Amino acid sequence: MKKRFSVIFVMALVLSMVFSSVAMAAVAGVQISNELVANVVVTGKGEIPKSEWITLSWDEEGTDGTIDGAQRLIVNVEEGEEGRATITAEKHVGIEQIENVLYVMEIRDNFDEPVDQELFNASAEQDLGYDEEGGYWYWGLKNGFTLNLEQVSTSFTYSFNKAGTYQVEIFAVQLLEGEIVRNQGELDTALANEALDTIILAGEFSGFYVARDVKIIGGVINPAKFGGTNAGILVAAGKTVELDSVTINGNDEVGSRGVEVSNNVDLIIRDSKINKVTSGIYLNPGSTLTAINNEISNTVAGIGSDQAELTMICGNVFTKCDEGIGLNKPIDAKGNSLDEEGVNGLANILRNMNTFKNCTKYVEIYS
Asked: What is the pLDDT of residue 2?
């Protein structure tokens, strides 16, 4: 019988949350090799949420298998009983291709303990490997494959060396080069190393200052007081910073900001969550914001701006904000101030392209 479920493209840290803390103790993310880590950044995917990039489905034969509420396959097997599963990936029709895709599988027993090579046997059409440090199985090339067909299937046979009930979770991850950091000291070192284009946060961090062009992925950030502000991330003037799948959790402190950018910053933020700060994102003059598929909640202002460009703000959800988006003298792509008609047009676009829940005002226009 075919069991079908959608799987979010999960980054290294998100995978570490799904996997047990015991299994992942040695490595905070799914690190496939020294050069590659699992995460979710692909340029050019636009407004399509990551949860819709790929859908996995499987046919399972030969065992008593069901899907539970957590989208796990539960199998009841006898010792040595053989089963066969076929995993099918379907690519979203709006995406031309997805690069460096890798399948990752976690298997746990009835006591919620990870199953390793001593208990599980499998053979697949593609090479099947086991990462002892991470406690997960993967198959295919370690550097992944390019999903450029509408649909592709892979089959494998499996058996267990001990009778019992087992749960199987399948993930599709994407591989990209990056530096994993696990504590504040490692983060400080990575931020100072201009040779690093991508930093992956694996853990919880205090607010920090970014003084160079960089891409930052994942992590939980708690706003802190530094540099004359109280923020999760403060970006120096003139820099280009991309944030992907970060979570910023404030504590409702007055004047706090999730992300604050200085003048003339190009900020890209997607698939991130900002909560319980005065301003979720604040833009100073001359800055440009691209914000796609974020969740901003429990703020006075979800996005606050002063003479900034906000023409690519879409798919975001603002919840329990006094105002979702504040516009103070917005500018166009050439840095020119918008006239009244342009401001009103922008406000209408922002209202229509985003979702506002329990917000007093959706878009507020200032003088």
From this structure: 39
- C-alpha dihedral (75, 81, 105, 53), degrees to nearest 10: -70
In terms of Cα–Cα distance, which of 11, 7, 53, 8 is closest to 199?
Answer: 11
Q: Which CATH number covers residue 39?
A: 2.60.40
Question: For the chain, what is the domain count?
Answer: 2
3-class SS shares of the chain: helix, strand, coil, % to 5: 10, 50, 40
Residues 318 and 347 in one domain: yes
Over residues 31-75, the pLDDT tens digits come to 322 222 333 333 334 456 666 777 777 666 655 666 555 556 677
Which residues, given as ranges, of the chain have pLDDT below 70?
1-51, 58-73, 124-126, 133-135, 140-143, 174-177, 367
Cα–Cα distances in Å, from 165 out to 106, 109, 161, 169, 271? 14, 6, 12, 14, 35
Which residue type occupies 332?
D
Whole-prediction pTM: 0.71
Same domain, 24 and 116: yes
**Domain extent for 315:** 179-366
196-220 as b/e: b if 16+ CB within 10 A = bebbbbbbebebbebbeebbbbbbb
